[in-house]
Specification:
The protein has a 4-stranded mixed sheet. It has one domain (about 10-130): Ribosomal Protein S5, domain 2, CATH 3.30.230. It is built from 4 helices and 4 strands. Helix 2 (about 60-80) crosses helix 4. It starts with 14 loop residues before the first helix and ends with a helix. It is an alpha+beta fold.
Length: about 130
């Protein structure tokens, strides 16, 4: 049974690492989500660290942005093993998940997009490692 906890040790908070992800990272899309990800030097035991964003310009109300991020966090928590199972121990990936849809999503839409996105991230990361 995979570990489904999403604690602070799995959150991406360091600004320097986020800047590296946007400057040098790879991109994967799974509508309504977009991911930027990069292999980084390990900073703890977690195989990946993740940050979630939703556009303030597109979703003016904070409650809407918070709901979107909550849906993304839950979907990532449940399905991240698709991506993390191929990461060898001693390696770590920094991931920034961006919501790019125009309307408030349902949980099913986010989950469907997350599964598609994670599969594309696996293929892109395996191409880089090969």
């Amino acid at each position: 049974m995979p570990d489904l906890r999403q604690g602070r040790d799995r959150s991406l908070k360091r600004r320097v690492v986020m800047d590296q992800v946007f400057a040098h990272g790879q991109t994967a899309k799974g509508f309504p989500l977009l991911a930027r990800f990069l292999e980084v030097t390990p900073d703890g035991p977690a195989a990946s660290r993740v940050a979630f964003t939703a556009s303030k310009r597109r979703f003016r109300r904070a409650v809407d942005r918070n709901r979107i991020k909550r849906l993304m966090r839950e979907s990532w928590r449940l399905h991240r093993s698709i991506f993390e199972q191929d990461i060898p121990s001693g390696k770590q990936w920094a991931v920034v998940l961006i919501f790019v849809g125009k309307d408030l999503p349902t949980a099913q839409e986010v989950e469907k997009g997350m599964v598609k996105l994670l599969q594309r991230m696996v293929s892109a990361s395996s191409e880089q490692q090969a």
